[in-house]
Amino acid sequence: MPELSTAPKLSALYLKAVATGPARRGDRLPDTEYLRRGINIDRDHLAEYDRVCGFGLRDELPITYPHVLSFGLAVRLMTDPGFPFPLVGLVHVANSIRQERPLLVTDELTQRVRVTDLRPHPRGRQFDVVTETSVGDAVVWREVSTYLRRGAASAEAPHRRDPADLAPTALWRVPGDTGRRYAAISGDRNPIHLHPLAAKAFGFRRAIAHGMWSKARCLAAFAERLPDACTVDVEFRKPLLLPSTVDFAMHRQDTGWAFAVRSRTGKSHLLGAVR
Questions:
Q1: Of 63, 126, 145, 229, which one has the fewest beta carbons inside 10 Å?
Q2: What domains sit in the chain, N to C, each tagged with a CATH number?
Q3: What does the radius of gyration of the chain's CA atoms come to, in whole angstroms?
Q4: How many CB atoms lie within 10 A of CB 234?
């Protein structure tokens, strides 16, 4: 298991992705797992993340914050020679986080990241990036991020319905610089999030918000209502163009909460649940 003592330099990895991406081919995911120990929280970085995503300043880490800490390890895996797909063009379609207890700003963390479960998708193939965050010997936070590699249809599209009982509870105005601000704090500098011209090269009318910014912004709206131990699942639907005005909805259910981000015309950008 390769162990890294510092976070990978994302700028170098992005240059590598651009240089080698088109040549990548394959049908198997690598067995590599990256490990990083001794991760301490930079309070200034955390405070800026809180501001960008709408969280209040607290000693507890936002439930989505460890994703940012592990992002460099994930990109390192997806730019290694054995990874079968180009990094550019991968689409983040779903994310699930299980937290056993809140992580604290004083905790020293260990993170492990691997890729697994290459499988069919109605628009190509999908796989998971699995991240485990530990304090001491205990895994207290686990994330599964699902990515799509577009291609020939390899599975039948499931019949999906939006929940009908989610009436809007808030109106959000999402500024045009949201993608650039989140990229600066997360390291996720995919060009589709940064500038309209770059986004148009990939088929979008304008730059689009990061899916993990959208998830974080939703969970910030829960304030202190999230239980200490919970699972938060989201499915990313229509891209959220920047700038935009969107509806946010949250609704209490027997098993937790359902929530959604929708356009003013009713199209879903994100559907989620807290259990």
A1: 229
A2: 1-157 (3.10.129.10), 160-275 (3.10.129.10)
A3: 18
A4: 26
Cα distances from 97 to residues 36, 65, 73, 168, 197, in angstroms, run 19, 11, 17, 24, 33
CB-neighbour burial class of residue 191 (10 A; exposed 0-12, middle 13-18, buried 19+)? middle
CA dihedral 26, 152, 71, 9 (to 10 degrees): 50
pTM: 0.92
- DSSP alpha helices (H): ranges in the chain? 10-20, 43-53, 65-79, 178-186, 196-201, 211-221
* CB contact set of 146 (below 8 Å; sequence gap of 6+): 92, 93, 94, 95, 126, 127, 128, 129
Paired sense of beta strands 3-4 and 33-39, if any = parallel
pLDDT tens digits along 4-53: 888 888 888 888 877 776 666 778 999 999 999 999 999 999 999 999 99
Give backbone dihedrals phi and psi of 239, rounded to 5 degrees, phi first: -60, 140
Smallest Cα–Cα separation from 192: which of 208, 212, 176?
Answer: 208
3-state secondary structure of 175: coil
